[in-house]
Amino acid sequence: MPRGARGTVGERPPASTRALGGRVVVTLRGEIDIANISPVEHELARLEDVHVGDVYVDLRAVTFLDVRAVNALERAREHANRRGTRMRLVCRRPFTLRLLGMVGGFAIVGELPRPAD
């Protein structure tokens, strides 16, 4: 994380991607705003090359999303739709759920599926 961004040097990045039982999971964490949107946009843009059936964006560790972060999620959803990939957001925070509900069109679940699901 560059100096001047939220957090301290050595802190986990605001976005990471991993495979989970044949699915791709992008985990976002912390405050996602202009100070740290670049690594988030980078991770979400990497999804453009994913051609599996299920992609999950895990927002459970996100404490704040600004409009640019929501726009990045919307772009990732549009790319997934064009490829025929199912993108789901994993979210339980009431504020984030209300914000995403205002935008609409997102498939939202409360938990990641178990690898065998």
The H/E string reads EEHEHEHE
The rounded Rg comes to 14 Å
What is the tally of helical segments?
A: 3
Number of strands: 5
Identify the quaternary structure here.
single chain
Largest sheet properties: 5 strands, mixed
How would you describe the shape?
globular
Low-confidence stretches: 1-8
> What is the SS-derived class?
alpha/beta
Strand-residue fraction? 25-35%
Give the N-terminus to C-terminus distance in angstroms: 35 Å
Q: How much helical structure, as a percent, in the residues?
A: 25-40%
Mean pLDDT, all residues: 86
Provide a short characterization of the protein structure.
With 117 residues, the chain is of the alpha/beta class.
Secondary structure layout plus pairing:
Layout lengths: L14 E6 L2 E10 L4 H10 L7 E12 L1 H17 L2 E5 L3 H10 L3 E3 L8
Parallel strand pairs: 2-3, 3-4, 4-5
Antiparallel strand pairs: 1-2
Any overview of this molecule?
By secondary structure, the chain is of the alpha/beta class. Helix content is 32%, strand content 31%. It contains three helices and five strands. It has helices at residues 37-46, 67-83, 94-103; strands spanning 15-20, 23-32, 54-65, 86-90, 107-109. Strands 1-2-3-4-5 form a five-stranded mixed beta sheet, covered by helices on one side. Helix 1 (37-46) links the parallel strand 2 (23-32) and strand 3. Helix 1 runs parallel beside helix 2 (67-83). It starts with 14 loop residues before the first strand and ends in an 8-residue tail after the last strand. 28% of the residues are buried.
